[in-house]
């Protein structure tokens, strides 16, 4: 028996004044997935996301969350079960960080002690020390800090589902990269069902367990990042992936671990970390003008060899 | 850092020159044997005696000297001198009365002349200028207005200023004065309450039904363009007609003249600032904030109460501040159609050519407006969202 998907859209459309924003979408997202919706601006990504928490209603079709048709659910109660984080954070400027994060727990009627404990836990989870940040106001935070608070706020009610609309879109590349890593780390701890919207294909490839490519309100392809790169269904997906960079993008999905060979003979001079990607290994080879790297684990013990030829082999499990 | 040769503060220098010229060339105060005979003006040295007068001139020259090459320390000294200058004003008047009016002259009265008024006015400007030059201004600049008010109050209470013409007018109209205050305040309060109730409702309507924005703002703008006197006048006829037709209204005290047309006109004038500020403030809240408020699962009512209103409050209060100050001024005009308030003194005084009576109405009106301004500004600052300085 296949498990019921956490989120299920069937034949969902949404019109705005007779213009189709979302066009007959059917989609299933399983529990624990990090599903990234990617596409060019105006293709209906945000609209799709807002349909899920009833900020917008469907023109036709229906949406099931955890098996229940949301048409029959109270919108406010539904939203309190789903975290929501958006691009410009939407933090309440007149409330402290602590109160911002406590919004949904307060709406859910938690006790003050429980809310405080939860805020404490979330701030630590997002590497914002409680003592330093809880009593600041949004205007006193940097862009990255504000966005962390936005994510903490979305997680506050301990929802099963997290909806994120270009949450890192307004950040500089370095901050964005560290927040992406943070999100992956948090997801490995909390294992929510996350629907993440972005127009940045690299962000999608980095974060997603599965990617939904949208174009003009329709789903063009729904696949894992590796399959998307290996078998793009049409030219639109190909152009989105970037023609010449595809090999490197694909290589950044493969860990060194799955291509390394057993140790033998002398150790090569230059090393790569076992958790790094093939893309990083190729970069190191090119940089050091070498065709073989030593693979080391987190404790800096040599655990294998990575000759250039091995990059071309299909991965071992 | 202090630059070795700072430039002169031209504002202070100019102000001091003006006040010195007026003090030396015009009368400082005047005495009148009674209300009817013309008063006799006295220059600074005659009025206060040479010691007090020279002290005053020396103080002003010292301020000018400090302003020539100002630095932070010199600004502190300047501010201290300005505070002294303002605080000695009521004392100098009491001294003037002591010198020129004997206790056995119950009808003799002292008036403030050009020099006295100029000193008060320019002293206030000097205070503002010094305060602005010092960031942050030392808290004790407040000693100037506070000292001015407290010392005046004390001298009035002790009787030392009793011969001041303003107070002579007051003492012959003691009960009328307090009635006027009560009347003025209740008209302003009534207009404020009325315009708040109607205004907030209209503002809510403009947000709910954007189509109504144009007609509502059109109408409110139209009210603002009618001169106040004309609006008061225009209301007399229909209200008298209604009052005559329906005796119930007369029973409620509604007539063509009096408080009823005054309140209606005041509310009409007050609506624009209230509605405009409220509507702009409520719709000006960032869309992302509203969207995430809904996205968190707040009800529309919660979004309004917890997010929109708190964020809009400072601007709404600003609208109420404008309305209040405007109403305080308009109530004075409403005296012409028989509404109670300080305006009745002003118009009586104008009719009799008695400037002191005009002042008895005008000064409290100005004082009320300043008080309302300070109160609402402080309230708006207090409600500023987020960080407080
Ligand atoms: N509230 C709305 N009213 C009218 N049109 C809208 C509204 N929201 C979105 N649209 C239109 O729907 C289309 C998809 O928008 P959106 O989902 O926001 O795109 P994106 O993929 O950039 O997030 C766009 O053409 C947009 O103009
Ligand atoms: Mg969007």
List the helices and strands and how they pair.
The complex is a heterodimer of chains A (317) and B (389).
Chain A: E1 7-16, E2 19-29, E3 34-38, H1 45-52, E4 60-65, E5 68-69, H2 75-80, E6 82-86, H3 97-101, H4 103-107, H5 112-125, H6 130-133, H7 143-155, E7 161-165, H8 173-190, E8 193-198, H9 201-207, E9 210-215, E10 218-223, H10 225-230, H11 235-241, H12 246-251, E11 271-273, H13 278-288, E12 292-296, E13 302-307
Parallel strand pairs in A: 3-8, 3-9, 6-7, 7-8, 11-12
Antiparallel strand pairs in A: 1-2, 1-4, 4-5, 9-10, 12-13
Helix pairs in contact in A: 5-7
Chain B: H1 10-25, E1 29-32, E2 40-42, H2 44-68, H3 72-100, E3 109-112, H4 114-133, H5 143-158, H6 165-171, H7 174-208, H8 213-225, H9 228-245, H10 247-251, H11 259-283, H12 287-295, H13 300-334, H14 343-352, H15 355-382
Antiparallel strand pairs in B: 1-2, 1-3
The complex binds adenosine-5'-diphosphate and magnesium ion (MG).
């Amino acid at each position: 028996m296949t498990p019921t998907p956490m989120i299920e859209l069937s034949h969902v459309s949404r019109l705005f004044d007779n213009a189709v924003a979302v066009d007959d979408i059917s989609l299933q997202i399983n529990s624990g997935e990090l599903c990234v919706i990617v596409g060019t601006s105006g293709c209906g990504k945000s609209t799709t996301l807002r349909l899920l928490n009833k900020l917008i209603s469907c023109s036709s079709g229906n949406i099931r969350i955890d098996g229940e048709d949301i048409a029959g659910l109270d919108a406010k109660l539904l939203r309190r079960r789903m975290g929501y984080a958006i691009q410009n954070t939407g933090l309440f400027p007149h409330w402290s960080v602590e109160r911002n994060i406590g919004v949904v727990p307060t709406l859910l009627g938690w006790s003050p002690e429980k809310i405080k404990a939860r805020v404490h836990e979330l701030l630590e989870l997002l590497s914002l020390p409680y003592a330093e940040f809880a009593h600041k106001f949004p205007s006193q935070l940097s862009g990255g800090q504000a966005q962390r608070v936005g994510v903490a706020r979305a997680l506050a009610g301990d929802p099963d589902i997290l909806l994120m609309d270009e949450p890192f879109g307004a950040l500089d590349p370095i901050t964005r990269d560290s927040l992406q890593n943070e999100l992956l780390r948090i997801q490995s701890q909390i294992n929510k069902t996350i629907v993440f919207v972005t127009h940045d294909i690299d962000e999608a490839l980095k974060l997603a367990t599965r990617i939904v490519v949208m174009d003009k309100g329709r789903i063009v392809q729904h696949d894992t990042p590796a399959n998307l790169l290996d078998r793009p269904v049409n030219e639109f997906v190909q152009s989105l992936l970037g023609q010449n960079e595809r090999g490197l993008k694909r290589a950044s999905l493969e860990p060194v671990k799955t291509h390394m060979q057993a140790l033998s003979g002398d150790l090569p001079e230059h090393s790569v970390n076992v958790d790094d990607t093939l893309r990083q290994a190729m970069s190191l080879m090119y940089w050091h003008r070498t065709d073989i790297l030593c693979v080391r684990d987190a404790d800096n013990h040599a655990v294998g060899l990575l000759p250039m030829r091995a990059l071309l082999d299909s991965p071992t499990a | 850092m202090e630059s070795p040769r700072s430039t002169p503060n031209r504002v202070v220098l100019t102000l001091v020159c003006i006040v010195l010229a007026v003090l030396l060339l015009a009368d400082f105060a005047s005495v009148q044997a009674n209300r009817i005979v013309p008063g006799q003006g006295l220059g600074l040295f005659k009025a206060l005696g040479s010691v007090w007068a020279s002290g005053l001139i020396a103080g002003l020259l010292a301020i000018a000297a400090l302003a020539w090459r100002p630095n932070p320390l010199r600004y502190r000294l300047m501010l201290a001198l300005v505070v002294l200058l303002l605080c000695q004003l009521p004392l100098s008047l009491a001294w003037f009365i002591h010198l020129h009016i004997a206790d056995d002259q119950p009808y003799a009265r002292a008036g403030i002349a050009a020099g006295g008024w100029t000193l008060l006015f320019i002293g206030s400007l000097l205070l503002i200028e010094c305060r602005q030059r010092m960031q942050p201004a030392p808290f004790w600049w407040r000693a100037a207005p506070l000292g001015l008010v407290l010392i005046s109050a004390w001298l009035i209470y002790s009787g030392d200023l009793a011969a001041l013409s303003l107070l002579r007018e007051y003492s012959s109209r003691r009960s009328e004065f307090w009635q006027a205050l009560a009347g003025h305040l209740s008209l302003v309060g009534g207009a404020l309450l009325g315009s708040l109730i109607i205004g907030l409702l209209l503002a809510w309507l403009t947000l709910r039904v954007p189509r109504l924005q144009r007609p509502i703002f059109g109408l409110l703008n139209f009210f603002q363009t009618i001169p106040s006197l004309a609006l008061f006048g225009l209301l007399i006829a229909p209200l008298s007609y209604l009052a005559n037709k329906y005796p119930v209204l007369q029973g409620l005290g509604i007539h063509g003249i009096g408080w009823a047309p005054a309140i209606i006109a005041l509310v009409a004038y007050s609506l624009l600032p209230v509605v405009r500020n409220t509507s702009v403030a409520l719709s000006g809240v960032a869309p992302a904030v509203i969207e995430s408020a809904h996205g968190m699962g707040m009800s529309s009512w919660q979004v309004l109460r917890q997010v929109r209103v708190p964020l809009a409050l400072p601007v709404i209060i600003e609208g109420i501040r404008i309305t209040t100050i405007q109403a305080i001024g308009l109530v004075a005009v409403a005296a012409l159609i028989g509404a109670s308030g300080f305006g009745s003194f002003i118009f009586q005084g104008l009719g009799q050519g008695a400037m002191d009576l005009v002042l008895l109405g005008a000064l409290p009106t100005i004082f009320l407006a300043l008080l309302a301004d300070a109160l609402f500004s402080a309230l708006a600052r207090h409600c500023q969202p987020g960080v407080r300085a």
